[in-house]
Design goal:
The chain is α/β, with parallel strands linked by helices. It is built from twelve helices and eleven strands. The protein has two domains: about 210 residues, 2-enoyl-CoA Hydratase, Chain A, domain 1 (Alpha-Beta Complex); about 45 residues, Lyase 2-enoyl-coa Hydratase, Chain  A, domain 2. Helix content is about 50%, strand content about 15%. Helix 2 links the parallel strand 3 and strand 4. Helix 10 runs antiparallel to helix 11. The longest helix is centred in the middle third of the chain and has 19 residues. It starts with 6 loop residues before the first strand and ends in a 7-residue tail after the last helix. Bound molecules: 4-(N,N-dimethylamino)cinnamoyl-COA. The site of 4-(N,N-dimethylamino)cinnamoyl-COA has 23 residues, from helix 3, helix 4 and strand 7. 4-(N,N-dimethylamino)cinnamoyl-COA binds next to helix 3, helix 4 and strand 7.
Amino acid sequence: MNAKTETTDHKGAADSVVEWHRHEGVVRLTVNRPKALNALNEEVIEALSAALDALESDAELRGVLITGAGEKAFVAGADITRMREQTAPQAHAFASRAQAVLKRLERLPVPVVALVNGFCLGGGCELALACDWAVASDNAVFGQPEVQLGIIPGFGGTQRLPRRVGPAMALDLITTGRKVDADEALRMGLVNQVMPQAALDTYAETLAGNLSANAPRAVGTAKRAVHDGMEQPLDSALALETSLFALCFAGDEQAEGMAAFVEKRPARF
Ligand code: DAK
């Protein structure tokens, strides 16, 4: 069977706390601890790391979707029952490890999209922020309630949230700990779209089809231009775009894409 049409399901590491479904080059990862509203503990972080080991070496990968098991939660945060016992050095190690895993997710050379199907709080919101964009079901609830627990966001929230929604809105959410519904999250730019929960699967299928049709190295290069460029002054970011744009003409995708247009046929990437 051709890899591009293959569908595989397998359990992730660590007793299935992360499930894996692959269809036509698009992998869906599901955080699977529904009884704890998919809260992130060390096992989930290590299972995500193991999944990333596979994703980073998958030459046919076209996209990654992340969601939570059940209908109630995407991820309701880091696991409070575990964090409760942590010392400062243990908290440092936990946050460092989780941040490294989220950075690898963010840097995958394919679009990574959060399908937010319910509570998306604390570390869950930080997981969604490490994705390139997020779509939410209309029952989704977002927030960074860490200050209500005597801590601050530790999985990148103080840095990625202001980059996503601006510093004033980020400070509102982070210092009050207030929760916002999907419509408010949409207005502030935290999510790209809101839809009924039952529509998330259709969205995922359509997205997978769209991602699979496009030139994969061009998609990865565009993602790199955006991420790397956002961290630089405009002049050097524009110079980066120029270099990456030129690089597209050194590969075979540009030749195929433009030949297909001129020959009035679909491109074969
Ligand atoms: N951790 C552990 N268990 C959780 C959980 C969580 N974050 N959220 C929910 N659960 C568990 C509940 O304890 C409950 O378990 P049982 O009692 O049934 O055993 C089960 O999930 C169902 O939850 P509820 O019964 O509470 O369900 P409700 O519908 O009544 O309420 C809720 C849903 C999402 C509003 C509520 O569960 C809630 O407020 N959950 C906590 C949300 C929250 O505060 N999240 C942020 C966590 S703090 C750092 C690393 C990371 C972070 C910071 C620093 N360093 C290491 C420096 C990040 C921190 C966070 O994410």
